[in-house]
Amino acid sequence: MATIPNPVTTALVENTVQHVPQKKVTLGPANVVAYMFQGTGVFMCLDIVAWPMEVARTRMQASKDNRPQSTFKLLRDIARTEGPTKLFRGLGPFLLTSLPSQAVYLGVYEHATAVIERNFPDRHNSNSALREIAVAGSAGFLAEAVSAFLYVPTDIISQRLRVQSESKGRAHMTSIDIFKSIYKADGIRGYYQGFFATLLAFTPYSVTHWAGYEATKKLVYNHLAAKEQKEMRLKKNGFYTKYQLSQNNLFIVGLSALNAAILSLVISSPFDMVRVRLQLLDSVHQQQAEQIQKGWWAMAKLIAKEEGVRGFFKGMAPKIMAAIPNGIGYLFAYEYIKENLESESASSSSSSPSSSSSSSTVSIFPPTFSSA
Q: According to DSSP H, which parts of the chain are helical?
């Protein structure tokens, strides 16, 4: 990632002590399309790598056994008794709608962020972390709510495939079998079973993820900028003055991504537990089929009654193992792709008129690869 010169240094050189907020990377319509393609490809790869942990998480959440379970022992047992390929059970349906739903999610998030910032500008130039929480949280909520219409049907099929070995006395069912059985039992409605629970699980995650990330990044950057400002005032050539860390520096992005991943996991875990149980009622907990009609709150009370508070946090170990590296990689890719697209767009706009026609089209691949 290219290092953007710190504006605080520039301000001090001009004998000004006012803190100048760093410009946030924003993308135009053409770049948003390219970003959607690039980002979706990278994020799908991250999901594939982390998928065995998703299988372990779903198995733990589906189980009513309150005893602690070892994630690696569970994965080893699945590989030994069912075969290594079963560690990727349910991945097919997930990937089927991953491309369109991720593209919609990223597109809505970027567009919503731009619209909110344009209509509610920072008139007082406050450079506040609270403003980042409001903007990023609102955009994350909208992105999750819109994209949920695409991924919920295949998410239900994927969840049921992942726990199939726990369905005693039932023949193995393929994705098509599950798709048909859902339609036969409940019609189109069946593909959106637990939709409200999904929104309750994923919108807090999305809101906390983006709000936590942007706010932490702003707080850390402001802290480092203040340190640099102090060094410049004292005319010291210290660490902060020497390195002039930008807001998209690897350290700042990594620390912010880690904080966002932990916060979003803790806040969304109870909602996610209820979502999984509702989506699995017909395949694992058939005796609780009436809970579908009773809805989200009744299922939450049932979990609390039968399994206690600990029941809402089942599967946290594989969740953390998947979400933290996945979340950090996700946000590194997010910043890298956006920064490269902005640089590519800037170089295209500054090129001569004779060459602008050939370079005005934005590649869907990062400049590193498309320039070869």
A: 7-13, 29-62, 71-81, 91-119, 129-162, 175-186, 195-233, 239-243, 250-279, 291-294, 296-307, 316-349, 353-359, 367-370
The pTM is what? 0.69
Q: What pLDDT score does 14 carry? A: 41
- Report which residue type is found at 320: I
What's the distance, CA 147 to chain centroid?
12
- Distance (Å, rounded) from C-alpha 136 to C-alpha 219? 14
Return d(Cα 32, Cα 94) in angstroms, integer: 23
Interatomic CA distance for residues 58 and 181, integer angstroms: 21
Per-residue pLDDT at 360: 40
For 135, what's the count of Cα atoms within 13 Å in the CB-facing half-sphere? Answer: 23
Residue pair 90/162 in contact (Cβ under 8 Å)? The answer is yes
Q: Which of 367, 214, 193, 199 is nearest to 292 (CA)?
A: 193
Residue written as tokens 């920064």?
A: 339
Q: Residue 229 in 3-state DSSP?
A: helix
Task: Let me know how many helices (H) and strands (E) the chain has, helices first.
Answer: 14, 0
pLDDT band for position 20 (cuts 50, 70, 90)? very low
- Does the pLDDT at position 17 exceed 50? no
pLDDT-derived band at 190 (thresholds 50, 70, 90) equals confident
CA pair distance 288, 294, nearest whole angstrom:
10
DSSP calls for 146-201: HHHHHHHHHHHHHHHHHTGGGSTT-----HHHHHHHHHHHHGGGGGGTTHHHHHHH
Q: How many CA atoms lie within 13 A of 141 on its CB side?
A: 10
What interhelical angle do 91-119 and 129-162 show, nearest 10? 160
Q: Are 116 and 137 in contact (CB under 8 A)?
A: no
Q: Of 24, 8, 99, 15, which is closest to residue 339 (Cα–Cα)?
A: 24
pLDDT at 329 over 80: yes
pLDDT higher than threshold 60 for residue 48: yes
pLDDT tens, residue by residue, 77-100 = 989 988 888 899 888 888 877 778
Share of the chain above pLDDT 90, in %: 2
**Tokens at residue 154, please?**
């295949």
Amino acid at position 294, single letter: K
